[in-house]
Design a protein that fits this description.
mainly alpha; Serine Threonine Protein Phosphatase 5, Tetratricopeptide repeat; 23 helices
């Protein structure tokens, strides 16, 4: 076990900003540049999960040398240049045996210059990924909390007793755990992750109870713990555990209120609104979404305001208030058209035109306008970035249901077949429930083209346990 003495939160060598990389980004926002990186990766068959946070870390010098996947992408984007031409340190200076040995002795991770490669492939090792998310932070606090198979002692209080004060490396490990959980959910859905993700959440609150070396570190820990509570709440939400989700969202909201963090508060209200809609409490969904918008106005993110207006629209649709829904949808579209900004929260990486279309499809479906819902659902599935496998499955399931209820059983069966193909990779009770409802609607149309084959395949498909 590592010593309980917490190393200084100041690194031995302060990172040097990568000014070259910043110049190469040009006028694009970090989110826009991250999207360009992902597009370039697809062009050469690579899979990277670049987001605005990663771009910030590169430009701040925290990532001295990218992993090999990112290296290939960057060299593809900027042909004729080397890594050093892009402002990175030579790989030999950060990957040598001496550097690795020093990292082992101090508990430091190689994450700052070889990030995300370990979780760009899943291989159904969710528990190992989540364990590493807390073990690679480097601090003694994280090491003390990394006793169980998922990166946490079976008794969270034991982890708390084993630590003194949390440092910057612990806050970094917590933030990384949030990213990894979100990434795995994007690709594979919630059902296989929820129970595994609860342990890192206990570790996060053990870190808060232990205290921090600096106020900035404490602020990062509270924000990270709140975001992790929302992520775990979403996993519960998407896997049908609504009571658990409500508890986790409430925990995140309380954390936001204690620390005066409007970004975290808006996020917690956003997810609470979504949960209320799904749980059949549409008026609560409207109130929570409106509360989120009041908090978020000061944050300067039109895209966040757009998403929150969509959450409100979903509540109005549940109340069968078409006028209220249409007004909220119009605001969502107007905010969205203002484009991305530096103020967009990192957790909103999923929110693009595809999600806008998908959420609008859900509103029209709730209102019973099946043809209009199907149009938006089809467009959502076509627009979605291939990285978000779960969302592609979700939008296609929405499309199948809208087509079935709108009297187009043959097209619904085709869409349902595509969902079943995707469910080989995705575990989501939400999607399975939607598909089960579609199959019930299609039962009287078994003789229509393709419907019988879909129903038979759906009946034999293994259910999530």
């Amino acid at each position: 076990m590592a010593s309980s003495t917490v190393p200084s939160s100041q690194p031995d060598r302060p990172p040097r900003p990568n000014l070259v990389f910043r110049q190469l980004r040009g006028p694009r926002s970090p989110a826009e540049f991250a999207a360009a990186v992902r597009r370039a990766a697809r062009e050469i068959g690579e899979r990277v999960s670049c987001d605005a946070r990663y771009v910030h870390r590169v430009e701040a010098g925290e990532i001295r040398c990218p992993n090999y996947a990112y290296e290939r992408v960057f060299l593809h984007m900027f042909p004729g240049r080397t890594l050093t031409d892009l402002g990175f340190a030579p790989r030999s200076s950060v990957r040598g045996r001496r550097a690795r040995d020093a990292a082992r002795e101090t508990g430091a991770a190689d994450e700052p210059y070889d990030t995300q490669d370990r979780y760009d492939t899943y291989d159904h090792e969710e528990s190992d990924v989540l364990r590493r998310a807390f073990m690679t932070g480097g601090g003694a606090t994280v090491a003390a909390a990394s006793l169980g198979p998922l990166g946490i002692a079976p008794d969270a209080s034991a982890a708390q007793r084993a630590v003194r004060r949390a440092g910057a490396s612990d806050a970094g490990a917590l933030e990384e755990a949030v990213r990894r959980i979100r990434l795995l959910d994007d690709r594979h859905g919630a059902d296989g992750l929820y129970r595994r993700a609860a342990a890192p959440l206990r570790a996060a609150y053990a870190l808060l109870d232990a205290g921090a070396t600096r106020q900035r570190t404490a602020d990062r820990l509270y924000a990270g713990a709140g975001e992790l509570a929302i992520s775990v709440g979403w996993l519960a939400h998407d896997s049908g555990r609504f009571d658990d989700a409500r508890s986790h969202y409430a925990e995140a909201l309380a954390t936001a209120r204690v620390t005066g963090d409007p970004g975290l508060e808006a996020h917690a209200f956003c997810n609470t609104a979504f949960l209320a809609r799904d749980a059949g409490r549409p008026r609560e969904a409207v109130r929570a979404a409106q509360a989120a918008q009041r908090v978020a106005r000061s944050l300067g993110s039109p895209r966040l305001m757009s998403l929150l207006a969509l959450r409100e629209a979903g509540g109005w649709a549940g109340l069968a208030d078409r006028t209220g829904c249409e007004q909220a949808l119009a605001r969502a579209q107007a905010y969205f058209e203002r484009g991305p900004s530096e103020a967009d929260p990192e957790w909103m990486s999923f929110y693009g035109e595809a999600e806008l279309e998908g959420l609008e499809a859900q509103c029209w479906s709730t209102l019973g306008d099946w043809p209009r819902a199907a149009r938006h659902a089809r467009r959502a599935a076509e627009l979605q970035d291939p990285h978000f496998t779960r969302n592609i499955a979700l939008y296609t399931a929405e499309l199948a249901d809208d087509l079935a209820r709108g009297g187009r059983p043959d097209e619904a069966a085709q869409a349902g077949m595509r969902v079943l193909d995707l469910l080989a990779e995705v575990q989501s009770s939400r999607i399975q429930t939607m598909l089960a409802g579609t199959s019930r609607v299609l039962l009287p149309h078994r003789r229509a083209s393709g419907v019988s084959a879909f129903l038979d395949r759906h009946a034999s498909f293994p259910r999530v346990v």
